[in-house]
Amino acid sequence: MVIKPKVRGFICTNAHPTGCAASVKEQITYVHQQGDITNKPKNVLVIGCSTGYGLASRITSAFGAGAKTLGICFEKEPTEKRTGTAGWYNTAAFHKEAENADLYAKSINGDAFSHEIKEQTVKIIKQDLGKIDLVVYSLASPRRTDPDTGVSYMSTLKPVGDPIVSKTFNTSKKEVHEISLESASQEEINNTIKVMGGEDWELWIQVLSEAGVLADNCITTSYTYIGKELTQPIYGYATIGKAKEDLDRASAALKQDYSSIGLKAYVTSLKAVVTQSSSAIPVMPLYISLMYQVMKDDGVHEGVIEQIYGLFDQLLLADNPPLDEGKRLRMDGVETNDDIQGKIKAIWPKVTTENFPVLGDYKGYNEDFLKLFGFGFDGVDYDAEVSPLAAW
Ligand code: NAD
C-alpha cells in the first residue's frame, strides 16, 4: 500500500514502516557520532521502549554502551490492510539494527501494568540476562488497570485548584485561541496519580527484586517534566504534576526499601519535546512551538536523543551526580533558565493565529509530529508501495 499520514486531531492514526526505520536509524547515527558513553550498563530493561524518551533510552543503551536491552511496550501489530503503530515499526527497526550490530535485543508487547507482563519479563531476564543493572521506566499512558483489583483508572489533564484560562494552539483547526479548563475533582487527581504516579514503578522494582534479577548497585529512573510558569497551570501544578510528585515519593521509598542492594532510584526531569504523549496535552503544542523557536534561535535546541544521550553520559550512570533540591536529575536546565523562559514569555501574549508561523516554530513542531509516525524523512519515497507488515 501507499501510506500517507492520516492525522486526526492530536494523533496520526497510521504510520510508515520505512520512515519509522529511518527515524530509528537517525537516532542511532547521532549516538554513534557522539561515541560511547562513559559508564556502560550491561543489561538494560526499558519499560515503555518503543517511542519518545523510552526509545531514545534503549537506543543510547544499545548503541552508546553496547548493552543488551529488553524492552516493554504496548503497540498495535500491522495487518495486510492496516498499518501498525509507529512504536511497532520503531521496535521492528530497532531489532533489525541491533541484530546487524550483534547486540542482544528482545521486546515484549503487552500491558506493562499487568502481573502477566512482569512475570514474562522476569522469565526472559533469568533465561537470557541473569541480572539487570539499569531499569528505565518511561511509560506514558492515559489509563491503567490495577492488576490486583481489576479496576481501571483514567488520567485527566486538568488544573488543580482554580479553573484556568490559557492560550493554546488547536492543531486541527490551526488556530491560536483561549481555552478554559475546569479544575479537577479529588477523584480525578487520585486517578491520575494511580495511572502516572509511582505505584507501578515500585511494583516493577518489587517484582524484579523478589525474583533476584536486580544487580547490586542497580540504577533505575523514571522521567518527569517540571517546567515553569507558562506550563505549570496545566502541567506542574495540575493533575499530571500531582502524579509526577508521586514519582518523587516513590524514588525516595525505592532507595530506602532496596538499600541492601544499593539501588539508586532517580526521577529525571527532561525538557519538553514533541512526542505522542505531549501532543495530547492542552497548551503544550503552543508552548513547545515557541520554546523550539527560541531555543533554535539561540542554538541550544535538543530533541529526545540529545537529551537522553546527555543524561546517560553525564548524570544517570555517574557515581555521585548532582541532584536538585527534590533529589532529581535535571536535563531541563537550558529550557527552564530565566533567559530562555523570559524570551518565551515575551512572545506569549503577542501570539495570534496570523503571526504564529512567524513568532513560533510551528513548522518545526509539525515536522517533528509527523516524524513520530515515520513521515517526512529525506530518502524515503512516500509515493512507493510498501508492505505494512513488519515482524520482530
Ligand atoms: P510516548 O508516548 O512517546 O511513549 C510512551 C511509551 O509507553 C511507549 O513505548 C508505549 O508503548 C508505552 N506504553 C504506554 N502504555 C503502556 C502499557 N500499558 N504497557 C506497556 N507499554 C506502554 O511518551 P514520552 O513523551 O516519551 O513519555 C515518556 C515519559 O517521559 C513519561 O513519563 C513522560 O511524562 C516523560 N516526559 C515527557 C516529556 C515530553 O515532552 N514528551 C518531557 C519530560 C518527561
Can you put this structure into words, describing what you see?
With 392 residues, this protein is α/β, with parallel strands linked by helices. The protein has a domain of 266 residues: Rossmann fold. 41% of the residues lie in helices and 17% in strands. The chain has 13 helices and 13 strands. Strands 5-4-3-6-11-12-13 form a 7-stranded parallel beta sheet, sandwiched between helices. It has a two-stranded antiparallel sheet with strand order 1-2. The relative contact order is 0.17. Bound molecules: nicotinamide-adenine-dinucleotide. The site of nicotinamide-adenine-dinucleotide has 29 residues, from helix 2, strand 4 and strand 11.
CATH architecture assignment of the domain at 7-144 and 189-283 and 302-334: 3-Layer(aba) Sandwich
Mean pLDDT across the residues is: 97
Provide the low-confidence segments as ranges: none
CATH topology of the domain at 7-144 and 189-283 and 302-334: Rossmann fold
Largest sheet, strands/sense/barrel: 7 strands, parallel
Radius of gyration: 20 Å
- Range of strand content: 15-25%
Element-by-element helix/strand order: EEHEHEHEHEEEEEHHEHEHHEHHHH
CATH level 4 superfamily of the domain at 7-144 and 189-283 and 302-334: NAD(P)-binding Rossmann-like Domain
Helix content: 40-55%
The oligomeric state of the chains shown is: single chain
Kindly report how far apart the N and C termini lie: 20 Å
